[in-house]
Design brief:
Elements lengths: L10 H13 L21 H12 L4 H14 L37 E6 L2 H9 L4 E4 L6 H15 L5 E5 L2 H7 L3 E4 L9 H6 L3 E6 L2 H10 L3 E5 L15 H11 L5 E4 L7 H6 L4 E4 L1 H4 L4 H15 L4
Parallel strand pairs: 1-2, 1-8, 2-3, 3-4, 4-5, 5-6, 6-7, 7-8
Helix pairs in contact: 1-2, 2-3, 4-5
The protein binds the ligand Cc1ncc(COP(=O)(O)OP(=O)(O)O)c(N)n1 and 4-methyl-5-hydroxyethylthiazole phosphate.
The site of 4-methyl-5-hydroxyethylthiazole phosphate (TZP) has 14 residues, from helix 11.
Length: 311
């Protein structure tokens, strides 16, 4: 494979690097940044080769470094290098898992169909239609409107057996007593996790790759979300769509955390996503923009019931 990098690797190592790239080409995605050089901080050849191969496969640099570190830990000697030995276990990535004292309250590993909805009225329609897990993702700058919407959604949720997560507004979620909150990476610097936890709320965290999963693990959330799996026009994503081969890898990486897959999932690709052993699949447009949302829910739920493997 022709390299996009100006490699600093010695010639014999380039062969091993290209072997890795050929072996793991299903993990390849089109990268947005064009890497012209690699400034390696670590001189270990295994680390260097793997990092370069991962950059070539389209991993962002912090993820390439995390994978290179895991590989080096598992396979430290270049003269015993086994290019088939891609590391997948959480411990190689220093992912501890949720069983520590600091964990958030647990939620089911299989959350069923998880619909992310724009308003409290939608939350009601979704619960009535039998959706087990919903999220209020209300986007507004009007504090009064936000407060009213969260309050209404939580009041509605109390009438139904399903689970309601509130996106972003964790203080309001606590005040009104929601089942859980969902936070993005940019919320992690400001949210008070102790307050969320001591109030008994579950926590879901968005991730877009390996390094963000490692960061999420430090917080021991109730679930980890990974997106986008496929292209989505609902929001601008910080990383390119990750695809099924990477989803399969991420499912192994998170170990016993429930993994929620999101982004571009619909009836046509749901089977393939479930086969990657995700705990659940979150969707917006496949339900909210469907010509008949009740019919869409029935079809998606039926597919989840028939296809989801034991995890
Ligand atoms: C289940 C699930 N996964 C990811 C997201 C995205 O959340 P976030 O990163 O906070 O981005 P916005 O939704 O605020 O645009 C989500 N909402 N739900
Ligand atoms: C909110 C969000 N976070 C990651 S992808 C995404 C959008 C999912 O929407 P859709 O299911 O319509 O692609």
């Amino acid at each position: 494979m022709a390299s996009k990098l100006n490699s600093q690797l010695p010639k014999p190592y380039l062969t091993i690097r290209d072997q890795l790239i050929a072996q793991y080409h299903p993990l390849q995605i089109e990268q947005r940044e064009h890497h012209t050089f690699c400034n390696f901080s670590d001189t270990n050849p295994v680390y260097q080769i793997v990092k370069e191969a991962c950059i070539e496969l389209g991993f962002i640099e912090i993820d390439a470094e995390a994978i290179a570190q895991a590989w080096q830990k598992n396979n430290p000697l270049i003269d015993q290098f086994n290019h088939l030995d891609w590391p997948v276990t959480p411990d190689l990535f220093q992912i501890k898992g949720p069983n520590s004292e600091t964990s958030f309250p647990t939620c089911p590993k299989k959350l069923g169909l998880y619909v992310v909805a724009p308003t409290a009225d939608w939350i009601e329609k979704l619960f009535i239609a039998g959706v087990p897990t919903v999220q209020l993702r209300f986007k507004s700058d009007n504090h009064h409107a936000i407060r009213q919407e969260v309050k209404k959604a939580v009041e509605i949720a109390k009438e139904f057996p399903g689970q309601l997560f509130i996106n972003d507004f964790w203080e309001l979620a606590i005040e009104f007593g929601a089942y859980g909150v969902h936070l993005g990476q940019e919320d992690l610097d400001t949210a008070d996790f102790n307050v969320i936890k001591t109030n008994g709320l579950r926590l879901g965290i968005s991730t877009h790759g390996v390094a963000e999963m490692q960061r999420a693990d430090q917080i021991s959330p109730s679930y980890i979300a990974l997106g986008a799996i496929f292209p989505t026009n609902l929001k601008i994503m910080p990383t390119a769509p990750q695809g099924l081969a990477r989803l399969d890898f991420y499912t192994k990486l998170v170990g016993s955390y429930p993994l929620v897959g999101i982004g571009g999932v619909d009836e046509t690709n749901l089977d393939a996503v479930l086969k990657c052993r995700v705990g659940s699949v979150a969707m917006v447009r496949s339900v909210i923009n469907a010509p008949d949302y009740r019919a869409a829910i029935s079809q998606l739920q039926a597919k989840i019931q028939t296809t989801q493997v034991d995890i």
